[in-house]
Amino acid sequence: MTKIKKSTVFFCKECGYESAKWMGQCPGCKEWNSFVEEPVSTHALKKNGSGNSTVSGTATVLSQITMKEEDRISTGMKELDRVLGGGVVAGSLTLVGGDPGIGKSTLLLQVCRNLSDSGHKVLYISGEESLKQIKMRAMRIGEFSDNLLLLCETNLSIIEQTIKELEPKVVIIDSIQTMYSEEVTSAPGSVSQVRESTGMFLQMAKGLGVSIFIVGHVTKEGTVAGPRVLEHMVDTVLYFEGDRYASYRILRGVKNRFGSTNEIGVFEMREQGLTQVANPSEYMLSGRPEDAAGCVVACTVEGTRPLMVELQALVCNSNFGIPRRQATGMDFNRVNLLMAVLEKRVGVQISNCDAYVNLAGGMKIQEPAVDLGVVMAIISSFRNRPIDEKTVVFGEVGLSGEVRAVSLSEQRLQEAKKLGFTTCIMPRANADALQDKGDDKIKIIGVSNVQEAIELI
Asked: What letter does residue 187 receive in the DSSP assignment?
């Protein structure tokens, strides 16, 4: 009698790297002790080994392919439609990730309400909550039509059969870590189960033309839990960000095959659910102090949307031998670099001072266009000289102290004019290109280095 050998492989829990043997450190993400042993599913290999089964094996000439505009469905929320690129595309697979309690399920339930009220059949599948729990959350949001159907199930075969029978327009999966396939012997939430579940939903979305939203949990680093291939398989990846102690939430698109990436939508969490913030810049600047040293308004761009943010700096003499540095909402190393530029290129002696830089409102920004704003906030606090509250600043600072041009300067200027700012300090290269855009409402000042900007204070 021939004994059948059971085939197993090792997967990295952090990034999904696959190996035939156990390794202490993952070559992909460099994490230690992250490999787990899981059996190989022959069903998954047959179905996913040669790629997507819906792709035809016949080669086609590029010029013979006909194009048409994608069929998009409005979610009834302009901020979400903006991030998606204009609405939900039929047959798309969207991944929504975020911290626990940030509002992922609430947002998708509000989308279900809007779509069902528009006459679209929506199926909400939950593997974490009971029907009564979903009903309690739905009562807080408002009234729902009969086009919304609820299903509490985690078995993929039953879910697949239900979707084929009901033929809904949109399906919500909450969450992908709870789904399991009987063909895979590992536990739900494992690398094999998450990959198998996503592959099945991908085939259903493309084969049946159903738009599917998948909720994914995130790790402590802020990435979607499970294999990294999960983000590569879906069409759109949305991250729900925001401080759980703050009222606003930011929905950021980091991948979108049907629109621009890095777009953001701003929401505010209220008792009735999430409400849209039509003017995020005005919302972020609410409660600004008047005539306070160390405060300056900078303009950043998220995707194609300009945002006004308030930068705050506090510089004081250090009581200890080693000065303390702290940055909230931006890169700590970038702030240290800018302070070194001030010491070397301008001659400002702040090496013996404590320095605290804060981005008010709890946002996190990585764009270098806020460099000039950080520099002016630090100098304003160091010299105790307030900056005019009607002044907005943007520009990238180099190691030589030069102020470099940034992109989308015209959009930043228009946003400043809309909010009533009277002075705009920007790189000289951008100012020369926008001289004809200036008018009596706003004054454009171009600077070529940090020294020129500091002299304006």
From this structure: P
Instruction: Verify that 116 and 228 share a domain, yes or no.
Output: yes
Q: With cut-offs at 50, 70 and 90, classify the pLDDT of residue 373.
A: very high
CA torsion angle 198 200 203 206 (round to 10): -60
- Reported as a single tens digit per residue, the pLDDT across 191-215 is 788 888 999 999 999 999 999 999 9
Is residue 263 located within the same domain as residue 340?
Answer: no
Number of domains in the chain: 3
Alpha carbon distance, N-terminus to C-terminus of the chain: 88
Length of the chain: 457
For 157-183, b where at least 16 C-beta lie within 10 A, e where not — what string? Answer: eebbebbeeeebbbbbbbbbbbbbbeb
**Global pTM?**
0.78
Considering the domain architecture, whether residues 308 and 200 belong to the same structural domain is answered as no
Q: Looking at the domain assignment, is residue 157 inside a domain?
A: yes
List the structure tokens of 269: 């969490």
List strand residue ranges (DSSP E) for 112-228, in order: 122-126, 148-152, 170-174, 211-217
